[in-house]
Design a protein that fits this description.
The complex is a heterodimer of chains A (346) and B (280). Chain A is α/β, with parallel strands linked by helices. Chain A has helices spanning 5-22, 41-58, 69-78, 92-100, 120-124, 154-162, 178-189, 198-207, 217-225, 236-244, 275-283, 286-296, 309-314, 326-343, and strands spanning 32-37, 61-66, 88-90, 131-143, 168-171, 211-214, 231-235, 250-253, 260-267, 299-300. Chain A folds into 2 domains: 30-135 and 262-320, Periplasmic binding protein-like II (D-Maltodextrin-Binding Protein, domain 2, 3-Layer(aba) Sandwich), CATH 3.40.190.10; 137-260 and 325-343, Periplasmic binding protein-like II (D-Maltodextrin-Binding Protein, domain 2, 3-Layer(aba) Sandwich), CATH 3.40.190.10. In chain A, the strands form 2 sheets. In chain A, strands 3, 4, 5, 6, 7, 8, 9 and 10 form an 8-stranded mixed beta sheet that branches. Chain A has a two-stranded parallel ribbon with strand order 1-2. In chain A, helix 2 (41-58) links the parallel strand 1 (32-37) and strand 2 (61-66). In chain A, helix 2 runs antiparallel to helix 12, helix 4 crosses helix 14 and helix 7 crosses helix 8. The longest helix of chain A has 18 residues, at 5-22. Chain A is globular. With 280 residues, chain B is an all-alpha fold. Chain B has one domain: MetI-like (MetI-like fold). Chain B has 13 helices and no strands. Chain B has helices spanning 3-39, 50-56, 59-93, 98-106, 113-124, 129-137, 151-175, 179-187, 192-203, 205-220, 224-229, 236-247, 250-279. The chains are: A alpha/beta (346), B mainly alpha (280). The A-B interface holds A 5, 8-9, 12, 68, 70, 74, 94, 97, 167, 172-174, 176, 178-179, 212-213, 215, 219, 222-223, 226-228, 333-334, 337, 341-342, 345-346 and B 11-12, 15, 18-19, 60, 118, 121-122, 125-128, 148-149, 227-228, 230, 232-235, 238-239, 241-242, 244-249. Chain B: Keywords: Cell membrane, Membrane, Transmembrane, Transmembrane helix, Transport.
């Protein structure tokens, strides 16, 4: 084909047009919702447990965007008048920030009938602009082949790691939830408060020679599998997922002081499609949450959910976990991160 | 050439350049300007240099800048030192083996950097293959060495990733060196050692410079290897990621990324000057 100016301009215009069309928000198509999910098994669970019943009941379709809360919130902040996402899965601290920024809609039982069966404290924790639908607990995961008598509490964990009995893998500050499920939880267990995190940093100083840091959940599992660490701070659900995958040498303990409840919030950005309410109601429905819990091995928040026998023995009851004060933590979190950088390193 | 034909030719050239220019402006220049501008703006939109002032007057952050540059320089120096002999053998000695050697050099680049980094974890963990070999198989050590999360291993992993870039840059220049110049030096009585340092090496400075710049730039922004293998390094890319992922301080992240960019450009300029002076 001969490339002359006419064909060049024509092709360029067509390509630009196609790119432009492709860039149109999917929301412009009325019956399409853009929801969010983490990758891997999470995506499958979101599609099977929430997207499928939503599509069956409404006749609408839902596309699933993969990523993480910080990215999704930034996308909504960049275009609040026409948010590219209709439903956000959020970490509790970011849910508070999004609510404080008046970027999210209020959750009410009128809009979401299934919200009636979600403990009010979870909606309050999102300042009324969202609620928790799923939770895990951060505790002590250990290699049973190496650790015959695992520490039962955070305090014992610190003492025995400091003494050199174990090498522990703990989350690094590069992992978003670290400030809550590790820093706050350990500090709280050792007698600290949100405004006094000295106990945590003193404990880290004592343990420093026997610590390795994980930057992401897979990293932790590699540390245990390769023998780099004997035990560490991890999540209950992820531990049981490994067990279900055939890893029979791993187990989990919820420390006596109570691990931090690491919840997953769900929110609807202002100006997002009203179809989102139908989808959110499915997310909060007991039958869907029950199925979701079975896939992910995590607890869910609808009080009508009844776990299977296997799951009931694994899910840490809400009464045995501590609900972190996310709003208070959000206020001081950057100071904690800065202190961590200076005293422990990245 | 008639004036209209000249204009038409220039217009055709401009049109051919237009897609790449538009692409660069839209996806590189505009985001870069937008990102940097955040660091100069207060929340109410007025101009400020306060973030740069507080960042550059804090010894902790200055230490991070120094650590970033020193780490990149160390990785660059080691990579070039390893790459030169490999490139020399590849061009001058390998003969029919040059194809397989190039394949072996490039093959690791076809694997995800995350997979390669996890490979280092498996090899060098406390109960990994290397420690098992040293403690159990050879019995040289009583207890396993702590190799992961040490500076040496993090540097080694970065060098492993970046050496191929340096080898290929040096080899391409070495290939073009006129062998008669080296033969001339030998015939005039210079030793092989002197011939290498006074003829071959200066003639390949462009390749060394290109390889060093490539390696330095990539090392300067390296992230995954340092996150997964630790090593205790605190570098600007790690801190920038943290501002987006954990603290959501986008303005500070923008300040740091602008500083990283300026450092990279300054080092690029210095290296180019050095290489040109050496090669002159």
């Amino acid at each position: 084909m001969k490339l002359n100016r006419r064909t060049f301009l024509g092709t360029g215009a067509a390509a630009t047009g196609l790119i432009g069309l492709n860039g149109l928000p999917l929301r412009a198509q009325d019956r399409t919702l853009n929801v969010t999910a983490y990758g891997g098994v999470w995506e499958r669970a979101i599609r099977d447990c929430f997207v499928a019943p939503f599509e069956a009941k409404t006749g609408a379709t839902a596309t699933v965007s993969l990523g993480g809360p910080a990215q999704w919130l930034a996308q909504v902040e960049a275009n609040p008048e026409n948010p590219p996402l209709d439903v956000l899965i959020m970490s509790p601290d970011l849910a508070v920030i999004a609510a404080e920024g008046d970027l999210m809609d209020d959750f009410t039982v009128e809009k979401l009938p299934n919200l009636a069966n979600i403990p009010q404290e979870f909606t309050d924790a999102c300042l009324g602009k969202g609620t928790y639908f799923d939770y895990g607990v951060g505790g002590i995961t250990y290699n049973k082949q190496v650790v015959s008598d695992a520490p039962k509490s955070f305090a014992a964990f610190v003492d025995r790691v400091a003494s050199g009995e174990f090498i522990a893998s703990v989350p690094s500050i590069q992992y978003g939830p670290t400030t809550v499920f590790f820093l706050w939880a350990l500090n709280n267990a050792l007698g600290g408060t949100v405004d006094n995190v000295d106990p945590f940093f003193e404990a880290m100083a004592k343990m420093k020679d026997n610590l390795v840091f994980w930057a992401g959940p897979n990293d932790f599992f590699n540390h245990l599998a390769s023998g780099e660490a004997d035990l560490g701070i991890y999540f209950d659900g992820r531990t049981w997922n490994h067990v279900d995958e055939g890893v029979d040498w791993i187990s989990f303990i919820n420390p006596e002081e109570g691990g931090a409840m690491t919840a997953v919030a769900i929110q609807k950005p202002k100006n997002a499609s009203d179809l989102a309410w139908d989808y959110l109601n499915e997310v909060l429905a007991p039958e869907n949450q029950s199925k979701f819990a079975e896939i992910l091995n995590y607890g869910v928040t609808n009080t009508k959910v009844e776990y299977s026998e296997k799951l009931a023995s694994r899910v840490t009851p809400l009464s045995e976990a501590n609900l972190p004060p996310y709003a208070e933590i959000a206020r001081v979190r950057n100071d904690w991160v800065d202190r961590w950088n200076r005293e422990i390193g990245m | 050439m008639p004036k209209t034909a000249h204009v038409s030719a220039r217009m055709r050239q401009a049109l051919l350049l237009a897609p790449s220019l538009i692409f660069l402006v839209v996806f590189f220049v505009m985001p870069l300007v937008d990102n940097s501008s955040r660091s100069f703006m207060t929340e109410d939109g007025s101009l400020t240099l306060a973030r740069y002032g507080s960042f550059l007057s804090d010894r902790f952050y200055l230490g991070i800048i120094v650590e970033t540059v020193v780490l990149s320089a160390a990785v660059t120096a080691i990579s070039v030192l390893i790459a030169y002999p490999v490139a020399y053998v590849l061009v001058r000695k390998a003969g029919r083996l040059s194809g397989p050697i190039i394949f072996l050099l490039i093959a690791p680049l076809l694997t995800s950097i995350i997979m390669r980094t996890y490979g280092w974890q498996v090899l060098f963990a406390r109960r990994g293959l290397v420690n098992q070999w040293l403690v159990t198989d050879l019995g040289i050590l009583d207890a396993p060495l702590r190799l992961l999360n040490t500076p040496g291993l993090a540097i080694a992993a970065l060098v492993h990733v970046l050496v191929p870039f340096a080898v290929l840059s040096i080899a391409s220049v070495l290939q073009g060196v006129d062998r008669r110049l080296e033969e001339g030096a030998l015939m005039l009585g210079a030793s092989r050692f002197r011939t290498f340092f006074e003829v071959t090496l200066p003639l390949t400075m462009d390749g060394i410079g290109t390889g060093a710049i490539l390696v330095f730039m990539i090392a300067n922004g390296s992230f995954v290897t340092l996150v997964l293998l630790g090593g205790g390094f605190q570098t600007l890319p790690l801190l920038i990621y943290q501002q987006f992922n954990t603290t959501r301080d986008f303005a500070l992240a923008s300040t740091m990324s602008t500083i990283l960019l300026v450092i990279a450009l300054a080092c690029l300029w210095l290296q180019l000057r050095l290489v040109r002076r050496q090669g002159a």
